[in-house]
Write a structure and sequence with these properties.
Number of strands of chain B: 11
Order of helices and strands of chain A: EEEEEEEEEEE
Number of strands of chain A: 11
Largest interface: A-B, 31 and 25 residues
Helix content of chain A: under 10%
Order of helices and strands of chain B: EEEEEEEEEEE
Structural class of chain A: mainly beta
Structural class of chain B: mainly beta
Largest sheet of chain A: 7 strands, mixed
Distance between the termini of chain B: 40 Å
Oligomer: heterodimer
Chain lengths: 112, 108
């Protein structure tokens, strides 16, 4: 099936540990995005990438890192520098230009 | 960046009622999307609507780009319409700015 796959759905980590969230798409989309959602809030942009081996910071990039080594994959690492990492993380992708964005099912990260 | 405001933040509807959700954005945008977030958190695409009006079943949307707003209409609401509705405005290099959502509860 074509789509955007995020894994895992649920993730628990101890405070101080880095953790990597996976996002894979087989839609041949050029651009990929990571968003964070907190309870009762909208989505805030963490990082985005328009092309392989290039990415830009979004509005809340501090404490996060990404890579874009393949067109299909855009993993997000939540580092120990992120002060409030517990949240719902959503990955999106789209073709470049004025086109429609599609989202994965999300990863719910809990840091204890 | 662009500011996106959605109203009303919370809405309770009797099944069968109609409703209108509003999305205002602070600057010119490349396009506008509406999403429904299901109970499991996934964002379901409803409309990609840079301008004009579109309809899909009981849902329709209108964007008036020159006046910087979009409306989502829900007619003959059903309990399955419950959830959070988000609008997202695309600007710059296809960055999406989200509103805080409209929490809709449809009661039988």
């Amino acid at each position: 099936d074509g789509g955007i796959t995020q894994s895992p759905k649920y993730l628990f980590r101890k405070e101080g540990q880095n953790v990597t969230l996976s996002c894979e798409q087989n839609l041949n989309h050029d651009a990929m995005y990571w968003y964070r959602q907190d309870p009762g809030q909208g989505l805030r942009l963490i990082y985005y990438s328009q092309i392989v081996n290039d990415f830009q910071k979004g509005d809340i990039a501090e404490g996060y890192s990404v890579s874009r080594e393949k067109k299909e994959s855009f993993p997000l690492t939540v580092t120990s520098a992120q002060k409030n990492p517990t949240a719902f993380y959503l990955c999106a992708s789209m073709f470049t230009g004025d086109t429609e964005a599609f989202f994965g099912q999300g990863t719910r990260l809990t840091v204890v | 960046g662009i500011q996106v405001e959605q109203s009303p933040p919370d809405l309770i509807l009797q099944e069968g009622a109609n409703s209108t959700l509003r999305c205002n954005f602070s600057d010119s945008v490349n396009n506008l999307q509406w999403f429904h977030q299901n109970p499991w958190g996934q964002l379901i695409n409803l409309f990609y609507i840079p301008s004009g009006t579109k309809q899909n079943g009981r849902l329709s949307a209108t964007t008036v780009a020159t006046e910087r707003y979009s409306l989502l209409y829900i007619s003959s609401s059903q309990t399955t319409d419950s959830g959070v509705y988000f609008c997202a405005a695309a600007y710059g290099n296809n960055r999406l700015a989200f509103g805080k959502g409209n929490q809709v509860v449809v009661i039988p």
